[in-house]
Design brief:
The chain is mostly helical. The longest helix is centred in the middle third of the chain and has 16 residues. 25% of the residues are buried. 60% of the residues lie in helices and 0% in strands.
């Protein structure tokens, strides 16, 4: 029988929660704007994780110098990629910059474009709809 893990179980320290939240904000802001649905998604996750405005303020203020923090745990990596894809899909569009960041994260955790596209397809409820020329990440 397969054991299921929740985000709350995997993100069991303040450091893990903040790193995860930072990664989400990076994807949300990649297209230059955080729209209402993305903001709501961030707010709900922040509340679920028990993060305060004071906890996340340094992240918001330093977005231009921050980069992904990749977790050590494989299960946390996969769950985090799924959540990053959910963030990318919040506004109903797949912005090439957001897609590029999700692809960068996928590569950094050992996944290829095909796995990312499959995840996008599953979470979007249909075939992947990235722009015709998604950015490539080396």
């Amino acid at each position: 029988m397969q054991t299921t893990h929740t985000l709350d179980q995997l993100l069991d320290t303040q450091h893990k929660k903040l790193a995860f939240f930072q990664n989400l904000i990076l994807v949300a802001a990649a297209d230059g704007a955080i729209d209402t649905s993305e903001s709501q998604f961030l707010l709900e996750l922040g509340q679920r994780l028990g993060l305060s405005a004071e906890d996340v303020q340094p992240i918001a203020e330093n977005l231009d110098v921050l980069s992904f923090i990749v977790p050590a745990d494989g299960l946390q990596r996969t769950l985090e990629l799924q959540t990053l894809v959910q963030m990318m899909l919040q506004d109903g569009q797949i912005d090439p910059r957001e897609y590029g960041l999700c692809l960068e994260y996928a590569h950094r955790i050992g996944y290829g474009k095909a796995i990312l596209d499959d995840m996008v397809s599953q979470l979007a409820g249909g075939p992947p709809v990235p722009n015709r020329n998604p950015p490539t990440v080396s």
